[in-house]
C-alpha cells in the first residue's frame, strides 16, 4: 500500500476518493485502526488528526500531532451512498479457489443463499388417490388436505397462481415440478414385490379394491393410487434435488399420499411409498459426498415406523422422531417407537425416538425436546442435508392427534433446523387431518423457510411428562452422543435402588415410634419393592376410626454432579411429611394402614437388567395400586370393625383408592371421607355407570386439593365426579401436606360418625 495516498480500512480495502464518497455530516469509523473521517476532510488515525483539504477525504501522508479531543464523543451513524467498483470488491470477497456452489452476480453479491427463492412442489393430480366407496363424508386422509394447504399459501401471497387475489410477496415461491418416481428409485427402499402389488391396483375392480381397504392396515386404494403415489414420491425427490442443486435455498413439498409408515414390503397408515426414504436414497446416490449425511426429523404425531426400518443400521442417516407412544398402544403400535430403540450395527445411536406417554402435548413440550435432545444431537451429527417429515396431526385442533402444537411452534422448530446443513432444508408433508390446522401450520413453516421470523409463543413451559420423557431419552442417547449428559452409571457399581432402602428405613422408624408392622400381601411375582409395602398399627382391626393412606415414595432432593451423575450423600435429603399425619392419627387414637406405592418395582422392568439403568415410572403402576387397594379392603378392612374409614391419597398412588370406590359396591357406605392431594399428576374422577349417585356422594364427602398451576383449572366448569376441588398455593406434595395439615385434620375430625349415619339411613330405607 502507498502510505502517501491511501488509508486502509479494517477489511483490507483502501479508502480513497475513487472508491468511497463521503457526504456532508458523515463519519466513517474503522475499529481496527481507530480511523475517523469527518466532513471537513480530516482523518483521525489512532487519536491523531490528519488534515485533508477535500470533502472526498483522500488521506494525506502528513499527520498532525494534535490530539483529537472530540474523538471520544458520539458520532453520527455510518452512511455509505455508493460503491463505484463492485467488481473490485467481488474479487476480494470471492477468491478464485472459492468452492461455493453459487455463482457471483451483483444482485446477490453479499447474500448468495438468502437471495435465492424458496421452492414449492404441488401437483393437483396427487388428489386423484381416494376411496372407491366412501363409508362416511370425511376420511382422515382426505384428498383435499393438500388443496387447502396450497390455497392457504396462495391467500398469503406466497404463490404466483392465477387464482390468487392477494398481492404477491417480493420473491414468491419458485414452483418445483413433480414427476413420477421411477421403478429404479422405488426399489432403492421397497421390494420389487411391493412395487408390483401397487402397480396391480390400477387394473383391479371396485370390489377388489374395497377388499384391500377392508383387509389391510389403514389404507385405501383406487385405480389412480399408483399415479398419485408415484407423483408424491417423485415430488419428494424433486423437492430435495432442487435444494441440493442450488436452484432454491429450501423447499416444501405439499404432497400426498404420505409415506413415513410405508415399510419395505407393506402399505399401511395411509402410506403407499415411503417418499422421504426414497428421496434420501436418491439424493445420496446422485450427490455423493455433498449429501452423504442426512438428518430426517419427523414431527408427525405418529411414529414413522417405515422410516426407522429403512435406516435402522445406516450410520449416514440420523432419524429423529417426536411422537405419541402411549405405551405402544398409539398407532402404529408396538414397542419400536420407544426411547430405547436406538439403531443397530453401524447405525447404533442414529435412531432417536422421543415417545410422549400421552396425547395432549403442547408447544413447551416440543420446544423442550428440541432444545434438550434434537438440536444438540443434530449439531454433533452435522448433516449435509435436512429433511423434515412434516406431519401436522400434532397441531391444535387435530382430533386424531389430540395434541396442541401451534403454528408458531412449528415455525420455531423449522427455524432451528434451518441452522443446520448450511440452511439446506426440505419439508415433505406427512399426516395432518384438520384442514384449518394443517393449512395454518404449513403456512407458518413456509413463511419461516422464506425468511420471516417466527411469531411469538404464548406458552413455553414443558410439562412434567415431557421433562421425564426427555430425561429418559437423554440418558439412553448419552451412550452414543458426546453432547448429552449425564452419562450412564457403570454397571459394575450398581447396588440397590434407593427407594427400597428408604422404605426399609421408614419401616424401622414407624415401628420404633408407632409399632407399625407389615401386613401380608399375596403376590404372583416377587420384587424387593413389595417388602414392607404395607405397614399397619397393631389396632387396625379394632372398633375405632381407621386412616388408610396411599402415598408415593418420599421425595428425594439432592444435587448430583452434572457430568459423572454421582450424588454425594451429604447433598441429598428425603422429605417425608406423611409421618406427621401418622403421628397425628395416633395421638387421636386412630388406627393407621400406610401403603407405599413405588414408582418403579425392582426386578419387574422390561429390560430384566438392574445394572444401573435409569427406569421411568412403572407403566403398570396404576394396576398394582388398584390390586393392592382391593386386596386390603377385602382382607383387612371390610371383615373388621373400623367405625369410620378415611382415605388419604397422595399423588398418583390415589389411583388405587378411586378404583376401589368405583368398582366395589358399598365401599362408600363404610367410608366417612376421602382426601386427595394433586400436584402435577392427573386428577382422578369417581363415577360409575351402575351407580348414578356415586359422583354426588364423592363430591359431598371429599376434599381434593389441587395445585393452583394445574392444567385442570383451565376448565371452565368442573364436573362433580372430580370431587370437591380446592386450589392449593403449593406445587409439591410435601409442601401441600405441610400447608394443609390442619385443614385436612379438621376435615377428618368433623366427619367422624358420618358413615354410621349413612348405614342407618340405608337400613331404614330398605
From TrEMBL:
<dbReference type="GO" id="GO:0140720">
    <property type="term" value="C:subtelomeric heterochromatin"/>
</dbReference>
<dbReference type="GO" id="GO:0031078">
    <property type="term" value="F:histone H3K14 deacetylase activity, hydrolytic mechanism"/>
</dbReference>
<dbReference type="GO" id="GO:0031508">
    <property type="term" value="P:pericentric heterochromatin formation"/>
</dbReference>
<dbReference type="GO" id="GO:0070823">
    <property type="term" value="C:HDA1 complex"/>
</dbReference>
<comment type="similarity">
    <text>Belongs to the histone deacetylase family. HD type 2 subfamily.</text>
</comment>
<keyword id="KW-0804">Transcription</keyword>
<dbReference type="InterPro" id="IPR019154">
    <property type="entry name" value="Arb2-like_domain"/>
</dbReference>
<dbReference type="InterPro" id="IPR023696">
    <property type="entry name" value="Ureohydrolase_dom_sf"/>
</dbReference>
<comment type="function">
    <text>Responsible for the deacetylation of lysine residues on the N-terminal part of the core histones (H2A, H2B, H3 and H4). Histone deacetylation gives a tag for epigenetic repression and plays an important role in transcriptional regulation, cell cycle progression and developmental events.</text>
</comment>
<dbReference type="InterPro" id="IPR023801">
    <property type="entry name" value="His_deacetylse_dom"/>
</dbReference>
<keyword id="KW-0156">Chromatin regulator</keyword>
<feature type="domain" description="Histone deacetylase">
    <location>
        <begin position="139"/>
        <end position="449"/>
    </location>
</feature>
<dbReference type="InterPro" id="IPR017321">
    <property type="entry name" value="Hist_deAcase_II_yeast"/>
</dbReference>
<keyword id="KW-0678">Repressor</keyword>
<dbReference type="GO" id="GO:0003682">
    <property type="term" value="F:chromatin binding"/>
</dbReference>
<dbReference type="GO" id="GO:0045944">
    <property type="term" value="P:positive regulation of transcription by RNA polymerase II"/>
</dbReference>
<feature type="compositionally biased region" description="Low complexity">
    <location>
        <begin position="54"/>
        <end position="72"/>
    </location>
</feature>
<dbReference type="GO" id="GO:1902794">
    <property type="term" value="P:siRNA-independent facultative heterochromatin formation"/>
</dbReference>
<feature type="region of interest" description="Disordered">
    <location>
        <begin position="48"/>
        <end position="76"/>
    </location>
</feature>
<dbReference type="GO" id="GO:0000183">
    <property type="term" value="P:rDNA heterochromatin formation"/>
</dbReference>
<dbReference type="GO" id="GO:0005721">
    <property type="term" value="C:pericentric heterochromatin"/>
</dbReference>
<dbReference type="GO" id="GO:0030466">
    <property type="term" value="P:silent mating-type cassette heterochromatin formation"/>
</dbReference>
<dbReference type="GO" id="GO:0000122">
    <property type="term" value="P:negative regulation of transcription by RNA polymerase II"/>
</dbReference>
<dbReference type="GO" id="GO:0042802">
    <property type="term" value="F:identical protein binding"/>
</dbReference>
<keyword id="KW-0539">Nucleus</keyword>
<dbReference type="Pfam" id="PF00850">
    <property type="entry name" value="Hist_deacetyl"/>
</dbReference>
<dbReference type="InterPro" id="IPR000286">
    <property type="entry name" value="HDACs"/>
</dbReference>
<protein>
    <recommendedName>
        <fullName>Histone deacetylase</fullName>
        <ecNumber>3.5.1.98</ecNumber>
    </recommendedName>
</protein>
<keyword id="KW-0378">Hydrolase</keyword>
<dbReference type="GO" id="GO:0033553">
    <property type="term" value="C:rDNA heterochromatin"/>
</dbReference>
<dbReference type="GO" id="GO:0031509">
    <property type="term" value="P:subtelomeric heterochromatin formation"/>
</dbReference>
<feature type="domain" description="Arb2-like">
    <location>
        <begin position="497"/>
        <end position="752"/>
    </location>
</feature>
<dbReference type="GO" id="GO:1990342">
    <property type="term" value="C:heterochromatin island"/>
</dbReference>
<dbReference type="GO" id="GO:0005730">
    <property type="term" value="C:nucleolus"/>
</dbReference>
<dbReference type="GO" id="GO:0031934">
    <property type="term" value="C:mating-type region heterochromatin"/>
</dbReference>
<dbReference type="GO" id="GO:0070824">
    <property type="term" value="C:SHREC complex"/>
</dbReference>
<dbReference type="Pfam" id="PF09757">
    <property type="entry name" value="Arb2-like"/>
</dbReference>
<dbReference type="InterPro" id="IPR037138">
    <property type="entry name" value="His_deacetylse_dom_sf"/>
</dbReference>
<keyword id="KW-0805">Transcription regulation</keyword>
<dbReference type="GO" id="GO:0000791">
    <property type="term" value="C:euchromatin"/>
</dbReference>
Amino acid at each position: 500500500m502507498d502510505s502517501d495516498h491511501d488509508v486502509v480500512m479494517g477489511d483490507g480495502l483502501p479508502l480513497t476518493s475513487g472508491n468511497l464518497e463521503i457526504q456532508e455530516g458523515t463519519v466513517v469509523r474503522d475499529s481496527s485502526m481507530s480511523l475517523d473521517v469527518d466532513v471537513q476532510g480530516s482523518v483521525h488515525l489512532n487519536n491523531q488528526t490528519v488534515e485533508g483539504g477535500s470533502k472526498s477525504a483522500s488521506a494525506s501522508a502528513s499527520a498532525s500531532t494534535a490530539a483529537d479531543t472530540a474523538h471520544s464523543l458520539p458520532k453520527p451513524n455510518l452512511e455509505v451512498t455508493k460503491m463505484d467498483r463492485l467488481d473490485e470488491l467481488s474479487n476480494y470477497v470471492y477468491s478464485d479457489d472459492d468452492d461455493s456452489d453459487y455463482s457471483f452476480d451483483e444482485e446477490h453479491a453479499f447474500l448468495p443463499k438468502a437471495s435465492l427463492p424458496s421452492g414449492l412442489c404441488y401437483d393437483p393430480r396427487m388428489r386423484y388417490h381416494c376411496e372407491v366407496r366412501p363409508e362416511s363424508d370425511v376420511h382422515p386422509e382426505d384428498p383435499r388436505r393438500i388443496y387447502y394447504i396450497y390455497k392457504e399459501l396462495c391467500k398469503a401471497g406466497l404463490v404466483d397462481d392465477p387464482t390468487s387475489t392477494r398481492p404477491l410477496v417480493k420473491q414468491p415461491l419458485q414452483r418445483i415440478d413433480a414427476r413420477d418416481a421411477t421403478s429404479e428409485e422405488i426399489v432403492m427402499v421397497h421390494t420389487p414385490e411391493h412395487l408390483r402389488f401397487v402397480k396391480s391396483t390400477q387394473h383391479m375392480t371396485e370390489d377388489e379394491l374395497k377388499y384391500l381397504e377392508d383387509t389391510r392396515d389403514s389404507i385405501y386404494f383406487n385405480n389412480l393410487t399408483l399415479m398419485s403415489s408415484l407423483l408424491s414420491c417423485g415430488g419428494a425427490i424433486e423437492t430435495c434435488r432442487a435444494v441440493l442443486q442450488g436452484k432454491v435455498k429450501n423447499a416444501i413439498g405439499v404432497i400426498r399420499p404420505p409415506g413415513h409408515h410405508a415399510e419395505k414390503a407393506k402399505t399401511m397408515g395411509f402410506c403407499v411409498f415411503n417418499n422421504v426414504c426414497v428421496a434420501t436414497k436418491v439424493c445420496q446416490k446422485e450427490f455423493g459426498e455433498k449429501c452423504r449425511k442426512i438428518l430426517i426429523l419427523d414431527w408427525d404425531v405418529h411414529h414413522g415406523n417405515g422410516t426407522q426400518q429403512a435406516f435402522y443400521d445406516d450410520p449416514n442417516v440420523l432419524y429423529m422422531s417426536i411422537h405419541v407412544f402411549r405405551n405402544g398402544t398409539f398407532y402404529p403400535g408396538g414397542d419400536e417407537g420407544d426411547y430405547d430403540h436406538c439403531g443397530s450395527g453401524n447405525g447404533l445411536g442414529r435412531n432417536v425416538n422421543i415417545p410422549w406417554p400421552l396425547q395432549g402435548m403442547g408447544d413447551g413440550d416440543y420446544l423442550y425436546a428440541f432444545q434438550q435432545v434434537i438440536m444438540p444431537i443434530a449439531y454433533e451429527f452435522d448433516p449435509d442435508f435436512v429433511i423434515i417429515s412434516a406431519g401436522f396431526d400434532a397441531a391444535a385442533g387435530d382430533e386424531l392427534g389430540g395434541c396442541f402444537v401451534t403454528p408458531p411452534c412449528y415455525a420455531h422448530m423449522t427455524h432451528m433446523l434451518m441452522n443446520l446443513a448450511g440452511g439446506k432444508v426440505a419439508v415433505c408433508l406427512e399426516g395432518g387431518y384438520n384442514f384449518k390446522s394443517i393449512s395454518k401450520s404449513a403456512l407458518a413453516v413456509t413463511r419461516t423457510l422464506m425468511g420471516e421470523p417466527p411469531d411469538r409463543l404464548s406458552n413455553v413451559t414443558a410439562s412434567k411428562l415431557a421433562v421425564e420423557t426427555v430425561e429418559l431419552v437423554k440418558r439412553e442417547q448419552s451412550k452414543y452422543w458426546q453432547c448429552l449428559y449425564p452419562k450412564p452409571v457403570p454397571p459394575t457399581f450398581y447396588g440397590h435402588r434407593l427407594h427400597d432402602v428408604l422404605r426399609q428405613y421408614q419401616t424401622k422408624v414407624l415401628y420404633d415410634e408407632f409399632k407399625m408392622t407389615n401386613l401380608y400381601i399375596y403376590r404372583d411375582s416377587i420384587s424387593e419393592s413389595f417388602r414392607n409395602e404395607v405397614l399397619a398399627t397393631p389396632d387396625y382391626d379394632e372398633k375405632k376410626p381407621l386412616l388408610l393412606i396411599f402415598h408415593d415414595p418420599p421425595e428425594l432432593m439432592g444435587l448430583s454432579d452434572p457430568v459423572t451423575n454421582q450424588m454425594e450423600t451429604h447433598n441429598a435429603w428425603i422429605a417425608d411429611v406423611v409421618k406427621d399425619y401418622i403421628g397425628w392419627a395416633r395421638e387421636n387414637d386412630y388406627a393407621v394402614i400406610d401403603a407405599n406405592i413405588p414408582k418403579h418395582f425392582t426386578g419387574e422392568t422390561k429390560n430384566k437388567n438392574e445394572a444401573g439403568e435409569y427406569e421411568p415410572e412403572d407403566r403398570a403402576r396404576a394396576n398394582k395400586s388398584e390390586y393392592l387397594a382391593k386386596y386390603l379392603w377385602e382382607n383387612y378392612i371390610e371383615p373388621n370393625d373400623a367405625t369410620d374409614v378415611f382415605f388419604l391419597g397422595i399423588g398418583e398412588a390415589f389411583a388405587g383408592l378411586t378404583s376401589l370406590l368405583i368398582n366395589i359396591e358399598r365401599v362408600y357406605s363404610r367410608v366417612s371421607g376421602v382426601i386427595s392431594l394433586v400436584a402435577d399428576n392427573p386428577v382422578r374422577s369417581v363415577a360409575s355407570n351402575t351407580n348414578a349417585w356415586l359422583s354426588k356422594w364423592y363430591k359431598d364427602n371429599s376434599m381434593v386439593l389441587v395445585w393452583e398451576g394445574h392444567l385442570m383449572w383451565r376448565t371452565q366448569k368442573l364436573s362433580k365426579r372430580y370431587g370437591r376441588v380446592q386450589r392449593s398455593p403449593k406445587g409439591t406434595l410435601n409442601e401441600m401436606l405441610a400447608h394443609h395439615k390442619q385443614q385436612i385434620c379438621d376435615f377428618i375430625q368433623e366427619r367422624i360418625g358420618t358413615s354410621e349415619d349413612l348405614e342407618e339411613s340405608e337400613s331404614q330405607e330398605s
